[in-house]
Amino acid sequence: MIRQMMKKTLLFLCVFMLGATGALAAYPDHPITLVVPFGAGGGTDIPARLLAGMMEKRLGQPIVVQNVSGAGGTLGVAQVAAAKPDGYTLGYVPTGTMCLQPHVMKLPYGTDAFDFIGTSVSQPVVLMTAKNAPWKNINEFIEMAKKNPNKYVVGITATGNMTHVPMLQFAEHFGLKLRFIPYRSGGEIFKDIMAGRTHLHADAPASLSTFDVYGLVQFADERSENLSDIPTTKELGMDARFSHWQGVIAPRGLPKDVLRTLETAMSEVVNSEAFQQEALRLKTKAHWMSSEAFRKLYDEELNTYGEILKYSLPQK
Predict the structure, then answer these.
(1) Do 32-122+243-312 and 126-236 fold alike per CATH?
(2) Which of 11, 12, 22, 102 has the greatest count of CB atoms below 10 A from its CB?
């Protein structure tokens, strides 16, 4: 009797373990949600959709992009942080939301609330304006802005993020008085730029391929290969470098095999010629960093931008 019970128990355990193994091996077995913390059509959304479209082919399940904008991207990131860590809710995030916003606002999540899958693109922040603007280059704009203090509007998506801080330093360096107006998304800013209600926006280069705008200056020491027609801040005598990387995160506690599945699929996509060529067409550049390297980058830049913000934002 005891032997029969033991046999049944062992049989049950074997079946259970096989079933569990099969379930894990099946990931993903239903659609994945990729939260983009900004509106559709902006410099974060465009590369996210490119990545999602290529990754879903490798994973065998749809990746549904969900735009959750507001509070400098932190509303969408908060949704990711609160999700179940099962690999079915991911976030596509830029530098500013992850490394600047924690220093300027109280957030419902900690800086250790995430696992990191990998990075997808990285390019300098670019200051953009309408193609029909009254200035034809950055020097003409600086001259006009000096003659017309508080006339020109800079659209930003949040105080203290990557659309704001570079422009604060730019205005201070050249002695300009500019007006900063917050918007919910980059897409809304560009609509107003093309309508003439707003004049400038600092964003990821991908927006150059989507809206009727051009780049005035890139916040870098050297001209990027695919942005060779845009002067750098160094050429203007300004020491300012702001890099706009983007990557994929997940809620903390992701099973290791799920993380590896996502990391492998993402690595294959970002390193593929198809993704790299499409990224160049979008005026951005593919840039792969592994899960471990991405986490290290995040930790380093979280500290770096914390120091920058001490001197860039007005102290209370």
Answers:
(1) yes
(2) 102
pLDDT tens for the chain, 316 residues: list them. Answer: 455 554 554 445 454 444 444 444 589 999 999 999 998 888 899 999 999 999 999 999 999 999 999 888 999 999 999 999 999 999 999 999 999 999 989 999 999 999 999 999 999 999 999 999 999 999 999 999 999 999 999 999 888 889 999 999 999 999 999 999 999 888 899 999 999 999 999 998 888 988 999 999 999 999 988 899 999 999 999 998 898 899 999 999 999 999 999 999 999 999 999 999 999 998 889 999 999 999 999 999 999 889 888 877 765 4
Report cis status (omega within 30 of 0) of the bond before 28. Answer: yes
Which two three-digit tokens encode residue 26?
């099946």
CATH of domain 126-236: 3.40.190.10
Considering the entire predicted model, what is its pTM?
0.81
CB of 301 closer than 8 Å to CB of 157: no
Phi and psi at residue 213, to the nearest 5°: -135, 170
Please list, in sequence order, all residues whose beta carbon lies within 8 angstroms of the beta carbon of residue 70, skipping any fewer than 6 positions away: 76, 184
What percent helix, strand, coil does the chain show, rounded to 5?
Answer: 45, 20, 35
Q: 287: part of which helix (H) or strand (E)? A: none
- Return the DSSP state at 145: H
Q: Whole-angstrom Cα distance, residue 295 to residue 313? A: 26
Cis peptide before 47 (omega within 30 of 0): no
Distance CA 114, CA 235 (A): 38
Do residues 111 and 102 make contact, with C-beta atoms less than 8 angstroms apart? Answer: yes
- Every domain of the chain and the residues it spans: 32-122+243-312, 126-236
